[in-house]
Amino acid sequence: VTDFVFNRDYISLFCAYINRDILNNSLKKSIHELGPKYTPDANVETKITKILNAFVFSNKFQREFDEFLNTLEEKTKQLKNKEEVYLNANTFKDIKKCLENFILKSKDESNKEYLNKFAKELILEIWRFNDNLIYFNSNNEEITNEESINCRQYTATFDFIREFFIDDIEIVLNNNVLIVEGEAGIGKSHTIADFLLTLENECICILELGQFFINESEDPWCKIIRKLGFSIGKNEFFNNLRKYSDLYGKQVVLAIDALNEGKGCSYWKNHLRGLVFECMDNNIKLILTVRSEYKDLIFKKDLLENKNISLIQHNGFMGFEQAAIKRYCQFYGFVEPVFLWSLIFIGIH
Known about the structure:
The structure is a single chain. The protein is an alpha/beta fold. The chain is built from 16 helices and 5 strands. It has a 5-stranded parallel sheet, with helices on both faces. The radius of gyration is 24 Å and the shape is globular.
């Protein structure tokens, strides 16, 4: 009786139908259906991986964010604010207080859902202050050496913040829907599949392929639920998914790859809005990938402009060309072509 009551695998039986094996097997089956679009042994981590981790606030991003806050806290402590230099009504003291408030609020777990707001406000403030700082330095001939050093310290701190948020990380924090657009063959499918596999043990991951949504009269949830092997309605599915999520403390992540494939342009015209808002209502993180040329055909303007929906561009290996060539050569057993890399480097620059 004790084993039954306290073993989570048994408790999950009360969340009728849903368990880890079913979810994991479904994920692996979907990845297998991707075929050559996913090659795990030829993987190269690019900046979009960081964005995806920030979107679901994965354990990896949590560690990176904690480290960022700790470093920022140390940098902020070293900033001086005794100089009463006015920069369009802003002082060093004002911006330092802004930094301290951001750190304090971001470290409070109860504020986690507001991190995107805090980050956007901070970045806006440092941009404003930095512009004033540049103006002050260029128009004040009597600036002291101490003030000059202080200005440089603030600028270095701002650079550190911008470097962490360089890929617009703040726009995906706390949002429930992420749209990933990119050209054909750029690596969207591979990226999503590889990312979900890294989350397999910390999130409830469901991957669906756009090519299989073909019955225009069928709700997408019916297709998703049937693929998982369940014979229940979507409200019961949401209820059980929520119980399972609460039981294990795991975020639910649903990814639908290649909305444009199959009958995508006509199918999603009638079903996308419902899917998006049902995910929002049930705290499901939704990742949608689409080929750039079909984005405006599938997504209505109001969805793309919704502040709770983030849109990012997948640029493939841009900025990671050398790492990609090395990994490709390792995967296929080629000797790295130094001359070819030189030509590519020249072409890039």
